[in-house]
Write a structure and sequence with these properties.
The complex is a heterodimer of chains A (183) and B (203).
Chain A: H1 2-14, H2 20-43, H3 46-63, H4 73-96, H5 100-112, H6 122-131, H7 135-145, H8 151-158, H9 162-182
Helix pairs in contact in A: 1-2, 2-3, 2-4, 3-4, 4-8, 5-6, 6-9, 7-9, 8-9
Chain B: H1 4-14, H2 16-20, H3 34-49, H4 54-61, H5 63-67, H6 80-93, H7 104-128, H8 135-140, H9 144-153, H10 173-179, H11 185-191, H12 197-202
The chains are: A mainly alpha (183), B mainly alpha (203).
Chain lengths: 183, 203
Protein backbone atom coordinates (compact mmCIF):
# COMPACT_ATOMS: atom_id res chain seq x y z
CA UNK A 1 0.00 0.00 0.00
CA UNK A 2 2.92 2.29 0.81
CA UNK A 3 4.31 1.48 -2.63
CA UNK A 4 1.01 2.39 -4.25
CA UNK A 5 1.01 5.77 -2.48
CA UNK A 6 4.51 6.47 -3.66
CA UNK A 7 3.48 5.56 -7.19
CA UNK A 8 0.62 8.04 -7.00
CA UNK A 9 2.97 10.70 -5.67
CA UNK A 10 5.38 10.06 -8.50
CA UNK A 11 2.57 10.29 -11.04
CA UNK A 12 1.29 13.55 -9.55
CA UNK A 13 4.77 15.06 -9.63
CA UNK A 14 5.34 13.84 -13.18
CA UNK A 15 2.24 15.65 -14.42
CA UNK A 16 3.64 18.97 -13.20
CA UNK A 17 6.17 20.39 -15.70
CA UNK A 18 8.31 21.84 -12.90
CA UNK A 19 8.70 18.48 -11.16
CA UNK A 20 8.49 16.18 -14.18
CA UNK A 21 12.20 15.29 -14.28
CA UNK A 22 12.41 14.86 -10.52
CA UNK A 23 9.44 12.45 -10.59
CA UNK A 24 10.94 10.51 -13.45
CA UNK A 25 14.23 10.26 -11.61
CA UNK A 26 12.35 8.83 -8.59
CA UNK A 27 10.52 6.35 -10.78
CA UNK A 28 13.70 5.15 -12.51
CA UNK A 29 15.53 4.73 -9.23
CA UNK A 30 12.60 2.81 -7.76
CA UNK A 31 12.18 0.30 -10.58
CA UNK A 32 15.49 0.20 -12.44
CA UNK A 33 17.05 -2.80 -10.69
CA UNK A 34 13.97 -5.02 -10.88
CA UNK A 35 13.45 -4.19 -14.54
CA UNK A 36 17.15 -4.49 -15.35
CA UNK A 37 17.37 -8.03 -14.01
CA UNK A 38 14.18 -9.01 -15.76
CA UNK A 39 15.64 -7.73 -19.03
CA UNK A 40 19.11 -9.13 -18.39
CA UNK A 41 17.75 -12.63 -17.82
CA UNK A 42 16.07 -12.38 -21.20
CA UNK A 43 18.86 -10.86 -23.32
CA UNK A 44 21.88 -12.10 -21.25
CA UNK A 45 24.40 -9.46 -22.37
CA UNK A 46 24.78 -6.29 -20.26
CA UNK A 47 25.11 -3.93 -23.23
CA UNK A 48 21.97 -5.34 -24.81
CA UNK A 49 20.17 -5.10 -21.47
CA UNK A 50 21.27 -1.47 -21.13
CA UNK A 51 19.94 -0.63 -24.63
CA UNK A 52 16.62 -2.28 -23.89
CA UNK A 53 16.43 -0.57 -20.48
CA UNK A 54 16.92 2.85 -22.06
CA UNK A 55 14.25 2.15 -24.67
CA UNK A 56 11.87 1.01 -21.94
CA UNK A 57 12.28 4.16 -19.89
CA UNK A 58 12.07 6.43 -22.94
CA UNK A 59 8.72 4.77 -23.71
CA UNK A 60 7.72 5.32 -20.10
CA UNK A 61 8.71 9.01 -20.31
CA UNK A 62 6.53 9.45 -23.40
CA UNK A 63 3.51 7.53 -22.10
CA UNK A 64 3.49 8.08 -18.33
CA UNK A 65 1.35 11.22 -18.51
CA UNK A 66 -1.45 9.12 -20.00
CA UNK A 67 -1.03 6.22 -17.55
CA UNK A 68 -4.37 5.21 -16.03
CA UNK A 69 -4.14 4.81 -12.27
CA UNK A 70 -6.58 1.90 -12.24
CA UNK A 71 -3.66 -0.32 -13.29
CA UNK A 72 -0.58 -0.99 -11.17
CA UNK A 73 2.45 0.98 -12.25
CA UNK A 74 4.86 -1.90 -11.84
CA UNK A 75 2.82 -4.37 -13.94
CA UNK A 76 2.60 -1.67 -16.62
CA UNK A 77 6.39 -1.22 -16.48
CA UNK A 78 6.95 -4.97 -16.66
CA UNK A 79 4.68 -5.16 -19.70
CA UNK A 80 6.67 -2.47 -21.50
CA UNK A 81 9.95 -4.14 -20.53
CA UNK A 82 8.76 -7.59 -21.62
CA UNK A 83 7.52 -6.29 -24.96
CA UNK A 84 10.80 -4.45 -25.52
CA UNK A 85 12.75 -7.65 -24.75
CA UNK A 86 10.65 -9.74 -27.13
CA UNK A 87 10.98 -7.06 -29.84
CA UNK A 88 14.74 -6.93 -29.29
CA UNK A 89 15.08 -10.72 -29.56
CA UNK A 90 12.90 -10.73 -32.67
CA UNK A 91 15.09 -8.04 -34.27
CA UNK A 92 18.20 -10.05 -33.42
CA UNK A 93 16.72 -13.05 -35.24
CA UNK A 94 15.84 -10.94 -38.29
CA UNK A 95 19.17 -9.13 -38.39
CA UNK A 96 21.19 -12.29 -38.41
CA UNK A 97 18.53 -14.24 -40.35
CA UNK A 98 19.19 -17.09 -38.02
CA UNK A 99 16.84 -19.75 -36.76
CA UNK A 100 15.33 -19.80 -33.27
CA UNK A 101 17.68 -22.66 -32.36
CA UNK A 102 20.68 -20.60 -33.48
CA UNK A 103 19.52 -17.67 -31.37
CA UNK A 104 19.13 -19.91 -28.32
CA UNK A 105 22.61 -21.32 -28.85
CA UNK A 106 23.80 -17.72 -29.38
CA UNK A 107 22.41 -16.75 -25.97
CA UNK A 108 23.97 -19.90 -24.44
CA UNK A 109 27.29 -18.96 -26.03
CA UNK A 110 27.02 -15.51 -24.47
CA UNK A 111 26.54 -17.16 -21.08
CA UNK A 112 29.53 -19.45 -21.63
CA UNK A 113 31.61 -16.46 -22.75
CA UNK A 114 31.06 -14.69 -19.41
CA UNK A 115 34.34 -14.28 -17.55
CA UNK A 116 32.80 -15.77 -14.39
CA UNK A 117 31.12 -18.71 -16.13
CA UNK A 118 31.45 -21.97 -14.20
CA UNK A 119 29.55 -24.93 -15.62
CA UNK A 120 29.74 -26.75 -12.27
CA UNK A 121 27.77 -24.08 -10.46
CA UNK A 122 24.02 -24.57 -10.35
CA UNK A 123 23.22 -20.89 -10.97
CA UNK A 124 25.11 -20.96 -14.28
CA UNK A 125 23.60 -24.30 -15.29
CA UNK A 126 20.18 -22.84 -14.51
CA UNK A 127 20.86 -19.89 -16.84
CA UNK A 128 21.81 -22.28 -19.64
CA UNK A 129 18.64 -24.27 -18.99
CA UNK A 130 16.50 -21.11 -19.09
CA UNK A 131 17.92 -20.16 -22.51
CA UNK A 132 16.61 -23.43 -23.95
CA UNK A 133 13.04 -22.28 -23.35
CA UNK A 134 10.97 -20.48 -26.00
CA UNK A 135 10.92 -16.69 -25.44
CA UNK A 136 7.46 -16.40 -23.87
CA UNK A 137 7.90 -19.47 -21.68
CA UNK A 138 11.18 -17.97 -20.51
CA UNK A 139 9.36 -14.78 -19.49
CA UNK A 140 6.79 -16.79 -17.51
CA UNK A 141 9.45 -18.87 -15.79
CA UNK A 142 11.65 -15.94 -14.77
CA UNK A 143 8.73 -13.79 -13.58
CA UNK A 144 7.54 -16.62 -11.35
CA UNK A 145 10.84 -18.13 -10.26
CA UNK A 146 12.91 -14.99 -9.70
CA UNK A 147 10.36 -12.17 -9.33
CA UNK A 148 7.82 -14.36 -7.50
CA UNK A 149 5.02 -12.66 -9.36
CA UNK A 150 1.44 -13.88 -8.70
CA UNK A 151 -0.29 -15.34 -11.78
CA UNK A 152 -2.98 -12.63 -11.64
CA UNK A 153 -0.37 -9.88 -11.99
CA UNK A 154 1.55 -11.87 -14.59
CA UNK A 155 -1.71 -12.14 -16.46
CA UNK A 156 -1.83 -8.32 -16.67
CA UNK A 157 1.78 -8.15 -17.79
CA UNK A 158 1.51 -10.78 -20.50
CA UNK A 159 -2.19 -10.38 -21.30
CA UNK A 160 -2.66 -14.14 -21.01
CA UNK A 161 -5.02 -16.07 -18.75
CA UNK A 162 -3.70 -17.23 -15.36
CA UNK A 163 -4.54 -20.84 -16.28
CA UNK A 164 -2.44 -20.70 -19.44
CA UNK A 165 0.42 -19.13 -17.47
CA UNK A 166 0.29 -21.92 -14.85
CA UNK A 167 0.46 -24.53 -17.59
CA UNK A 168 3.34 -22.67 -19.25
CA UNK A 169 5.27 -22.48 -15.96
CA UNK A 170 4.70 -26.19 -15.38
CA UNK A 171 6.14 -27.05 -18.81
CA UNK A 172 9.08 -24.70 -18.29
CA UNK A 173 9.98 -26.24 -14.89
CA UNK A 174 9.86 -29.74 -16.36
CA UNK A 175 12.13 -28.74 -19.25
CA UNK A 176 14.62 -27.07 -16.91
CA UNK A 177 14.66 -30.05 -14.58
CA UNK A 178 15.30 -32.31 -17.55
CA UNK A 179 18.16 -30.07 -18.75
CA UNK A 180 19.82 -29.92 -15.33
CA UNK A 181 19.61 -33.68 -14.81
CA UNK A 182 21.05 -34.44 -18.26
CA UNK A 183 23.84 -31.85 -18.52
CA UNK B 1 5.33 -10.58 -4.79
CA UNK B 2 3.77 -13.85 -3.72
CA UNK B 3 4.67 -15.44 -0.33
CA UNK B 4 7.86 -17.43 -0.71
CA UNK B 5 6.40 -20.66 0.67
CA UNK B 6 3.73 -20.69 -2.07
CA UNK B 7 6.32 -20.31 -4.83
CA UNK B 8 8.54 -23.01 -3.34
CA UNK B 9 5.64 -25.36 -2.61
CA UNK B 10 4.46 -25.02 -6.21
CA UNK B 11 7.97 -25.59 -7.55
CA UNK B 12 8.51 -28.64 -5.32
CA UNK B 13 5.18 -30.02 -6.49
CA UNK B 14 6.21 -29.78 -10.14
CA UNK B 15 9.88 -30.69 -9.70
CA UNK B 16 11.19 -31.90 -6.34
CA UNK B 17 14.75 -31.58 -7.72
CA UNK B 18 14.40 -27.86 -8.51
CA UNK B 19 12.34 -27.19 -5.39
CA UNK B 20 15.04 -28.61 -3.15
CA UNK B 21 17.88 -26.72 -4.81
CA UNK B 22 16.09 -23.44 -5.63
CA UNK B 23 18.54 -20.60 -6.01
CA UNK B 24 17.59 -17.08 -7.05
CA UNK B 25 21.19 -15.90 -7.12
CA UNK B 26 21.99 -14.53 -10.55
CA UNK B 27 25.58 -15.14 -11.65
CA UNK B 28 25.71 -12.04 -13.89
CA UNK B 29 27.62 -8.92 -12.93
CA UNK B 30 26.89 -5.26 -13.67
CA UNK B 31 29.52 -2.56 -14.27
CA UNK B 32 30.35 -0.63 -11.09
CA UNK B 33 28.16 2.43 -10.55
CA UNK B 34 25.74 1.43 -13.31
CA UNK B 35 22.54 1.87 -11.30
CA UNK B 36 23.80 5.03 -9.57
CA UNK B 37 24.22 6.86 -12.88
CA UNK B 38 21.57 5.21 -15.02
CA UNK B 39 18.75 7.64 -14.20
CA UNK B 40 20.85 10.76 -14.83
CA UNK B 41 22.34 9.38 -18.07
CA UNK B 42 18.86 8.50 -19.26
CA UNK B 43 17.48 11.94 -18.48
CA UNK B 44 20.36 13.51 -20.37
CA UNK B 45 19.49 11.40 -23.40
CA UNK B 46 15.81 12.31 -23.08
CA UNK B 47 16.64 16.03 -22.84
CA UNK B 48 18.63 15.75 -26.05
CA UNK B 49 15.73 14.14 -27.89
CA UNK B 50 13.16 16.59 -26.56
CA UNK B 51 12.30 19.59 -28.75
CA UNK B 52 14.27 22.16 -26.86
CA UNK B 53 16.03 25.37 -27.87
CA UNK B 54 18.82 24.48 -30.37
CA UNK B 55 21.25 26.88 -28.64
CA UNK B 56 20.69 25.23 -25.26
CA UNK B 57 21.03 21.80 -26.84
CA UNK B 58 24.32 22.78 -28.50
CA UNK B 59 25.70 24.31 -25.32
CA UNK B 60 24.93 21.02 -23.53
CA UNK B 61 26.56 18.97 -26.26
CA UNK B 62 29.56 21.19 -26.93
CA UNK B 63 30.19 24.52 -25.18
CA UNK B 64 33.06 25.09 -27.65
CA UNK B 65 30.78 24.96 -30.73
CA UNK B 66 28.11 26.97 -28.93
CA UNK B 67 30.67 29.76 -28.39
CA UNK B 68 31.70 30.00 -32.06
CA UNK B 69 30.45 32.75 -34.41
CA UNK B 70 27.49 31.44 -36.42
CA UNK B 71 28.06 33.87 -39.35
CA UNK B 72 28.36 32.10 -42.74
CA UNK B 73 31.68 32.63 -44.55
CA UNK B 74 30.07 32.21 -48.04
CA UNK B 75 29.42 35.22 -50.35
CA UNK B 76 26.45 35.76 -52.68
CA UNK B 77 26.11 37.98 -55.80
CA UNK B 78 25.01 41.55 -55.05
CA UNK B 79 21.23 42.07 -54.98
CA UNK B 80 20.70 38.30 -55.38
CA UNK B 81 17.64 38.03 -53.12
CA UNK B 82 15.80 41.02 -54.69
CA UNK B 83 16.29 39.54 -58.18
CA UNK B 84 15.34 36.12 -56.96
CA UNK B 85 12.03 37.33 -55.49
CA UNK B 86 11.11 39.27 -58.66
CA UNK B 87 11.91 36.18 -60.76
CA UNK B 88 9.69 33.98 -58.64
CA UNK B 89 6.92 36.65 -58.78
CA UNK B 90 6.91 36.43 -62.60
CA UNK B 91 6.71 32.62 -62.42
CA UNK B 92 3.65 32.86 -60.22
CA UNK B 93 1.67 34.73 -62.95
CA UNK B 94 2.16 32.14 -65.65
CA UNK B 95 -0.51 29.50 -65.61
CA UNK B 96 1.19 26.15 -65.68
CA UNK B 97 0.04 23.77 -68.38
CA UNK B 98 -2.06 21.01 -66.99
CA UNK B 99 -0.74 17.66 -68.07
CA UNK B 100 -2.96 14.76 -67.36
CA UNK B 101 -0.97 11.95 -65.87
CA UNK B 102 -1.79 8.60 -67.30
CA UNK B 103 -2.73 6.26 -64.62
CA UNK B 104 -0.26 3.40 -64.45
CA UNK B 105 -3.00 1.19 -63.12
CA UNK B 106 -5.20 1.92 -66.11
CA UNK B 107 -2.34 1.16 -68.54
CA UNK B 108 -1.70 -2.07 -66.68
CA UNK B 109 -5.42 -2.95 -66.95
CA UNK B 110 -5.35 -2.48 -70.72
CA UNK B 111 -2.11 -4.44 -71.05
CA UNK B 112 -3.53 -7.35 -69.07
CA UNK B 113 -6.80 -7.24 -71.05
CA UNK B 114 -4.82 -7.31 -74.34
CA UNK B 115 -2.77 -10.26 -73.13
CA UNK B 116 -5.86 -12.20 -72.10
CA UNK B 117 -7.59 -11.44 -75.43
CA UNK B 118 -4.48 -12.55 -77.33
CA UNK B 119 -4.33 -15.78 -75.39
CA UNK B 120 -8.02 -16.52 -76.02
CA UNK B 121 -7.67 -15.70 -79.76
CA UNK B 122 -4.60 -17.93 -80.12
CA UNK B 123 -6.28 -20.76 -78.28
CA UNK B 124 -9.43 -20.38 -80.43
CA UNK B 125 -7.38 -20.34 -83.66
CA UNK B 126 -5.60 -23.55 -82.81
CA UNK B 127 -8.82 -25.18 -81.63
CA UNK B 128 -11.00 -24.38 -84.65
CA UNK B 129 -8.62 -23.82 -87.57
CA UNK B 130 -5.84 -26.23 -86.99
CA UNK B 131 -7.07 -29.82 -87.05
CA UNK B 132 -3.57 -31.19 -87.16
CA UNK B 133 -4.31 -33.40 -90.23
CA UNK B 134 -3.01 -33.13 -93.80
CA UNK B 135 -5.84 -31.90 -96.18
CA UNK B 136 -4.41 -33.90 -99.11
CA UNK B 137 -4.52 -37.01 -96.96
CA UNK B 138 -8.17 -36.21 -96.17
CA UNK B 139 -8.99 -36.07 -99.94
CA UNK B 140 -7.80 -39.66 -100.35
CA UNK B 141 -10.66 -40.75 -98.11
CA UNK B 142 -13.30 -39.06 -100.35
CA UNK B 143 -15.04 -41.58 -102.61
CA UNK B 144 -15.08 -41.10 -106.38
CA UNK B 145 -18.91 -40.91 -106.30
CA UNK B 146 -18.83 -38.09 -103.73
CA UNK B 147 -16.22 -36.26 -105.76
CA UNK B 148 -18.35 -36.63 -108.96
CA UNK B 149 -21.47 -35.39 -107.16
CA UNK B 150 -19.55 -32.37 -105.87
CA UNK B 151 -18.13 -31.52 -109.32
CA UNK B 152 -21.55 -31.92 -111.00
CA UNK B 153 -23.13 -29.62 -108.43
CA UNK B 154 -20.42 -27.06 -109.13
CA UNK B 155 -20.68 -27.42 -112.94
CA UNK B 156 -17.36 -29.12 -113.36
CA UNK B 157 -17.36 -31.90 -116.01
CA UNK B 158 -15.43 -34.93 -114.95
CA UNK B 159 -15.78 -38.65 -115.62
CA UNK B 160 -14.87 -40.79 -112.62
CA UNK B 161 -11.85 -43.02 -113.31
CA UNK B 162 -10.54 -40.82 -116.19
CA UNK B 163 -7.12 -39.35 -115.72
CA UNK B 164 -6.26 -35.84 -117.00
CA UNK B 165 -3.57 -37.11 -119.40
CA UNK B 166 -6.14 -39.40 -121.06
CA UNK B 167 -8.40 -36.45 -121.93
CA UNK B 168 -6.40 -35.60 -125.15
CA UNK B 169 -7.19 -39.05 -126.49
CA UNK B 170 -10.89 -38.14 -126.67
CA UNK B 171 -10.28 -35.38 -129.25
CA UNK B 172 -10.89 -36.42 -132.90
CA UNK B 173 -10.53 -34.52 -136.18
CA UNK B 174 -14.10 -33.25 -136.01
CA UNK B 175 -13.48 -31.72 -132.57
CA UNK B 176 -10.39 -29.99 -133.92
CA UNK B 177 -12.32 -28.71 -136.94
CA UNK B 178 -14.95 -27.32 -134.54
CA UNK B 179 -12.32 -25.68 -132.40
CA UNK B 180 -10.62 -24.08 -135.45
CA UNK B 181 -13.84 -23.04 -137.23
CA UNK B 182 -13.59 -19.45 -136.05
CA UNK B 183 -9.92 -19.10 -136.98
CA UNK B 184 -9.25 -17.44 -140.36
CA UNK B 185 -7.00 -18.99 -143.04
CA UNK B 186 -4.52 -16.13 -142.86
CA UNK B 187 -4.11 -16.70 -139.10
CA UNK B 188 -3.54 -20.40 -139.73
CA UNK B 189 -0.93 -19.63 -142.40
CA UNK B 190 0.89 -17.39 -139.96
CA UNK B 191 0.85 -20.19 -137.40
CA UNK B 192 1.95 -23.05 -139.71
CA UNK B 193 5.68 -22.09 -140.00
CA UNK B 194 5.94 -22.34 -136.19
CA UNK B 195 4.83 -26.00 -136.19
CA UNK B 196 7.32 -28.87 -136.40
CA UNK B 197 7.61 -30.56 -139.82
CA UNK B 198 5.81 -33.77 -138.80
CA UNK B 199 2.73 -31.85 -137.77
CA UNK B 200 2.74 -29.88 -141.05
CA UNK B 201 2.92 -33.11 -143.03
CA UNK B 202 -0.08 -34.46 -141.14
CA UNK B 203 -2.10 -31.36 -142.01
Amino acid sequence: MADQNTDNEILALFREPATKEKAFNMLVKKFQERLYWHIRRMVVDHDDANDVMQNVFIRVWNALANFREDAQLYTWLYRIATNECLTFLEQQKKKATISINDLESGLSNKIRADKDFDSNKLEWKLQLAIQQLPDKQRVVFTLRYYDEMPYEEMSQVLETSAGALKASYHHAVKKIEDFILNH
Amino acid sequence: MEPLNEIEAELSGISPVLGKSRTTVLPYTVPAGYFEHFAENLLQRIRMTEHEDPRTELSTLSPLLAGLDRKSPYQIPADYFNEFSSDTASFRHTEPKLIRMRSTRRVMKYAIAAMVTGLIATAAFFTFNHSGTDPLQELVNVSSQDMATYLDNHDVHWVPGTAVQDASAEFNDNDISDLLSNVSDSELEQYLPELPEQKQATN
